[in-house]
Design brief:
single chain; about 180 residues; alpha+beta; 8 strands
């Protein structure tokens, strides 16, 4: 089984449909914390919808256009990183993350994102890695900065939310700029 150590007590592993119960428990612990920042389709509310989210990403992995990995700390799923999209034909992917509050501040997301971005750039030939987040998501923007990304700009009113339209910030790093 693939596992990549992030710290002495945390590791990055594939997150598969058979992890639905763990994924749902993780979402239950961080639902309120992440709901302003992630799409409603990601935030599963029961075991079946959790399995469907994970299956959708497994299908994307099989089609070579996305992927999902969990961050386990001391044996508990606490968050993860993902490729929202991945196109080797275009040489572009979009990375993202989520994390429960109790695991924040330890560099887990930054370390995990470095692993998948490095793989995309070095193994898959991705030229541009994007990080797109709602404006005001300071923790996500901080990760983009720690990853050496540049702020490309703001897409004003680009995302529909229950509260109305939201601005989205676009950050990116290009393969020639990427260092781990």
């Amino acid at each position: 089984m693939f596992a990549h150590a992030l710290t002495d007590d945390a590791e990055l592993r594939p997150l598969s449909p058979w992890h639905a119960d763990e994924f749902l428990a993780n979402l239950d612990r961080c639902r309120e914390h992440i709901s302003p920042w992630v799409g409603a389709s990601f935030v599963a509310t029961d075991a079946e919808s959790a399995r469907k989210v994970l299956q959708a990403y497994a299908d994307r992995w099989a089609r070579d256009d996305g992927g999902l990995w969990g961050i386990w700390q001391r044996g508990t799923l606490v968050g993860g990183v993902l490729f929202v999209s991945l196109s080797t034909a275009r040489g572009v992917c979009e990375a993202g993350c989520w994390l429960e509050p109790g695991a924040e501040g330890q560099g887990l997301v930054t370390r995990a994102a470095r692993v998948i971005i490095d793989w995309a750039v070095r193994e898959r030939g991705i030229h541009r890695v994007e990080w797109i987040t709602k404006a005001g998501n300071d923790r996500s923007i901080a990760v983009a900065k720690r990853l050496g990304m540049s702020r490309d700009g703001v897409l004003r009113g680009a995302a529909a939310t229950p509260e109305g339209r939201a601005d989205m910030e676009v950050w990116s790093v290009l393969a020639p700029e990427w260092t781990t």
